[in-house]
């Protein structure tokens, strides 16, 4: 009991410390000073009156939201003597693997630099800066020669690294038993099984209304949809983060989604935020990073050719280029096992660090936010809360390693015939589903379905749903998959996911399959 | 049998000279005088006539606002025929001299011959001719329409786009028309700018794929197109559900009104059905404008997805035009069962609308709470297409 209390006070102290440095603190202070003018604030009961004022004016809610937001990313309590690396990632072999992966990426980048005689970072000459500023909204039309740039790594490479992860303390034994994991991932992490998933995702059950199922045209809107929209509007009016997160587990109405996500991620558009974005933009204009060309090439190859996202090509460049220079992103590395490689500009012009990562999923967000600085904030927050886990090696239950393991375990346990068959023909299921998961299905599902899926990621504060969906897709196409005889044929069966409806698949897999 | 004809052939088939008669088991995919709707000048003429008639009748649909603009029937940009209306045009032009106008040849398609002007001097040619040879009829090839250019189009990703919607008409009297659910948006490859220096840059202003195809940035995989559902999702997410629903209601409204406008003059030959390609532009106030109607909407495909769409379009069109895939009999009542609609939805069915009661003289309007629904699009629960009440 005492331990818990002291843990709690430690957590409180840490959160208070964190919030003291935020703009919310400054705003609250300002508000408190301003409230002294108000007649109901009396000197004798100053503290209570101000608290009361905060409650009425909605500032307490904002504080609550901020605390809630901190809590959701707060690492779990640990031993007081644990070193900081341990907090990031408790398993040593994982840390080692992440470290060597980063070294590999850096080496690859450096060799590309020397090969092409391009510096990792350089300051742009003034003429070029002006040009870029003019073209800021149209970078998509530029066609620099990118043929010499190779992507630093492909999902396949990352998968290979994950497959080769081994826990040195774990002795698997040579004898095969029913417990032998037949998949590619060979690390003994704990993953949920279906009964646990059913509990975790209880709001997705068959008896609860869902957007993505119960708003289809055959169902009269009075049954679920209208009420759900009404509740959604109420949640937004209350500006309650926690309530929004609970609400969105059943899906978000399209019209409310942009605001709901902003509320859950605790993003408000303060002037400081817009300024911050402008500052990043200035950084982009002034300095040219090698990573920029890689980003450029990646966007050209993927989003520009996509049916839905090609329209937003220019936004993608703006967001990603700024993101690669955002040092506040580094704050999240406190709970990520990765540590960003450092780079110094020739002449040491102040820019210190940047993170190397596989360009993540901006495009679907363009459907919700068209104001660049808001788009940027949402994207950044989504990345530091969720998507970074898809690109780094860790033992976190939402980390890519756990997701892969969860996927394989689900498949092996509940669709053993299919799993075995695919393995026999050399089509390990993970080889196909990895690319879906590492991109959070962006670019594979229809946009409206993707947004419904990401609603649930936010609602449950976990990426596990990606693994469940991947398994559900396999279950859905099981009949066809049983008939294929090669990896290529299996890929073909699963090539086109654009017609899939996400929620029914998830529901059937979790709640309606006889296990 | 179904005779799929080009516009040229239709002219021959129905022309008085050839004396060709279609037998009962032949149906064709064009109405003989479809050009009343599909030629830019005639469409505008018919709509103007229709509006004046409604005004004379005192119909509430023809209501105007304090500036003299029609409240519900102002969906075509101000248009004049050249050279016939040259003087009228000049008067209008002088009222707002900084405006831009778009010149379109009446008889051409695919963006051919279109250009933008913002100075009277740029169209001197049409004024000179009309002064000197007023009794010499201009050959139809040189006739142009000039319309007020919509220089505040709704932009997505900074780009201009327009909507191409397919509408199938099986009969004009009573009017029965269907809207294809899978319309699409055509995007320009270049960022939009209303600046006058770019008036000549057709890649900025014209969305026709025939033009955009030749642009440097044209992408052959997705072809610069979005589905209408995408557009709906985007607008609902960024602007809200009510305004989006209102926009789509208005779009359906203007299509139906345009068909009603030409219905009286259409040769409602029972051998005919027709699938039109409607081009609509949405401005930044979310108001839709009817730009033109095409009689032979491009059935060639520019991308793989496109091919699938056009294939299904033809398939569904024929399913509705011909009952049960049997030998067509033009005497049938042209009321296909719900199952064969495929990707079509009933847009307006005059018989159904009239059958709803005798006091339905007051036709419905978008956003008003009076009058009946224009047509049932689904039976149980949902009426997605028309929320007019």
TrEMBL record, chain A:
<dbReference type="InterPro" id="IPR000195">
    <property type="entry name" value="Rab-GAP-TBC_dom"/>
</dbReference>
<protein>
    <submittedName>
        <fullName>TBC1 domain family member 19</fullName>
    </submittedName>
</protein>
<dbReference type="InterPro" id="IPR042507">
    <property type="entry name" value="TBC1D19"/>
</dbReference>
<feature type="domain" description="Rab-GAP TBC">
    <location>
        <begin position="251"/>
        <end position="461"/>
    </location>
</feature>
<dbReference type="InterPro" id="IPR035969">
    <property type="entry name" value="Rab-GAP_TBC_sf"/>
</dbReference>
<dbReference type="Pfam" id="PF00566">
    <property type="entry name" value="RabGAP-TBC"/>
</dbReference>
TrEMBL record, chain B:
<keyword id="KW-0493">Microtubule</keyword>
<comment type="subunit">
    <text>Part of the neuronal tubulin polyglutamylase complex which contains TPGS1, TPGS2, TTLL1, LRRC49 and NICN1. Interacts with PCM1, CSTPP1 and LRRC49.</text>
</comment>
<keyword id="KW-0067">ATP-binding</keyword>
<comment type="similarity">
    <text>Belongs to the tubulin polyglutamylase family.</text>
</comment>
<feature type="region of interest" description="Disordered">
    <location>
        <begin position="355"/>
        <end position="389"/>
    </location>
</feature>
<keyword id="KW-0963">Cytoplasm</keyword>
<keyword id="KW-0966">Cell projection</keyword>
<dbReference type="InterPro" id="IPR004344">
    <property type="entry name" value="TTL/TTLL_fam"/>
</dbReference>
<keyword id="KW-0547">Nucleotide-binding</keyword>
<protein>
    <recommendedName>
        <fullName>Polyglutamylase complex subunit TTLL1</fullName>
    </recommendedName>
</protein>
<keyword id="KW-0436">Ligase</keyword>
<dbReference type="GO" id="GO:0005874">
    <property type="term" value="C:microtubule"/>
</dbReference>
<dbReference type="GO" id="GO:0005524">
    <property type="term" value="F:ATP binding"/>
</dbReference>
<keyword id="KW-0206">Cytoskeleton</keyword>
<dbReference type="GO" id="GO:0070740">
    <property type="term" value="F:tubulin-glutamic acid ligase activity"/>
</dbReference>
<keyword id="KW-0969">Cilium</keyword>
<dbReference type="Pfam" id="PF03133">
    <property type="entry name" value="TTL"/>
</dbReference>
